[in-house]
Amino acid sequence: MSRAAAPSDLSVLSFNMQVGVGTKRYREYVTRGWRHVLPSQGVRDNLSRIADLLGAHDIIGLQEIDAGSRRSRYQNQIQSLAEQAGFAYWRVQVNRDLGRVAQHGLGLISRYQPFSVTEHKLPGRLPGRGALVARFGSPAHALTVVVTHLSLGAGSRTQQLAAICEMVADDEHVIVMGDTNCSAHDLLADPALAASGLRVYDRLLPTFPSWRPRRGIDHILTSASLPVHRAGVIETMLSDHRPVEMQIGLPRELGQALARRDSAATG
């Protein structure tokens, strides 16, 4: 088998998918609230539409997923999405294990096989927040991707951002993506984030609520080594959030490491 071509960039996507409920207006928080606890054909149909959306990207971070409970008909939503969209790799981190009621957490879907994946619980006033950390390429030339969903409270978010920055302090090439529950302005003011060198995309990308987005609370942060070629919000209402996407340039050595790993995984 010939070696895979080294990618020069990556398309990444972050999406709070609201376990597929698909809220399209405020009143549906009440009228469709039952979909958070009971199975629904509407959710299954919406998940198929989400799978169609994912196919144009390389690495995807998903928040508010269900890993297999009554409301998802005991189906791991991330495994199902990955299979429908034709991706080679997926991983789930369950942060709120409510047994048959809900297996709530984070998901990673990727065209590339990571060489390391770790799960982390994040500090905060209430439990249930985490970070899923995947490293791609090789230890010598690694891309570190963090998928997370931060707390609503500012104090807890500060602790969580500090913990994430510590996790990636020794990594050169880093992408952090997720629902941060705060604006880019708030992220820029965070002391740990400022000291880390991670960059906040400074143009407004409103993602919430999906039917009339006014707040940009879903973000993709990058290290200085990864140039951002393009960023935007996808205009869709598959959740109460809209997805945010970014085209990111790769240093040559990192692209080659990704290609070698990909060839080894598929060869």
Automatic annotation (TrEMBL):
One Pfam family this sequence matches: Exo_endo_phos
Keyword field contains Hydrolase: yes
GO cellular component: membrane
UniProt entry keywords in alphabetical sequence: Hydrolase
Residue stretches making up the Endonuclease/exonuclease/phosphatase domain: 13-241
Single GO MF descriptor: hydrolase activity
PANTHER family hit by this protein: CALCOFLUOR WHITE HYPERSENSITIVE PROTEIN PRECURSOR, ENDONUCLEASE_EXONUCLEASE_PHOSPHATASE DOMAIN-CONTAINING PROTEIN
Protein name, UniProt field: Metal-dependent hydrolase
Organism: Salinisphaera hydrothermalis (strain C41B8)
